[in-house]
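name: query_chain
kind: protein
chains: 1
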Amino acid sequence: MIVRHFLDWIRTAPAGKRAEATGALARAYLYSDLSPDDAAAAEGAMLMLLDDTSPLVRRALADALAASPEAPPAIVLALAADQPQIAAPVLALSPLFVDADLVDAVATGNGAIQAAIASRASLPRPVAAAIAEVGSAEACLVLGENDGAEIAAISIDRIVERFGHLAAVREALLARDDIAAATRLTLVAKVSETLVGFVAARHWLDAEHAQRIAREACEKATVTLAAETPSPQMRPLVHHLRVGGQLTAGLILRALLSGNVVLFEEALAELADMPVERVSHLVYDSGNTGLRALFDQARLPPSTYPAFKEAVGALREGSLISEPGGATRLKRRAIERVLTRCEDQDLSELAPLLTLLRRFATEAAREEARLFCDELVAESGGADPQFAAA
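structure:
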């Protein structure tokens, strides 16, 4: 009887009032103790309201039914096929959809629909893969920010490939805990490419200078990231670097002079195509003859061998590892030792290596100075009052 009066009234009521009444009817269907006849009548009325000319009415129906597992499936499916602003709530919240429904909606819907699906609290991998493949930038951003989404590594790589140039997407992906180290490096490279283009376009630096700075920053980030990478991910990371042309002698030397022995040994194992255990034996126990054989097998530039030999000597003596800074920061005294020995040889082919070592030495000195100043400030409990007043 109540539903009959509702249907009589709704024919002449204004859109706003109809929307309010529709929401109330849907909530009554879900949460009130209706008799079977009243429940059937209410469902019939809601089916009729799917044809209401006002989107306010249909949106009120969608908002009321979206999150409920007790909502009538036929109505939910019809709402999902309505205008994006009406379909979005049910696609974002309804537990009635199976993966195939959501994948189809991603493929056929616009950016708003895709973003709504990407925001679902528990998003399975097939749906995430569909969004990564055809979703808009907004949808991929929402997906990256969704901690409840299960995203396969290949899908994350696809998002990076499509939208890695967008800062918001990069930040969302980098904030996730399930991003592989190789993918993080790809994102770092995207940042570098963007910055190089920005700086060069404004003529703040010439392109070559900007590219060198960006390359060195990427190498520094690589060593830092490698120090935090679990052992099972190290070989895939190193292989990624090799495939991308980033596993250079400069990067490997930086890793060694930072005390990142794991990255150093894994890099040589990758380049020489031998087990890392064999590489470790040659580095530590076989003298310079074994080291030279390993170096040649890895096909590193011959001009860089003197630096590697001296750095490995410091490693064997323990002086390289004993310097502070963990496995992420260049070791100043080790670099100075290598630089001095290489300068004594005074060979013209060593000029590029000496230039690289001098840049390493400058970077290490600046980092050491920053750490020293930080320690002084920490010990004094903050800035001196007379300087703060000034």
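note: The two ends are 81 Å apart (CA to CA).
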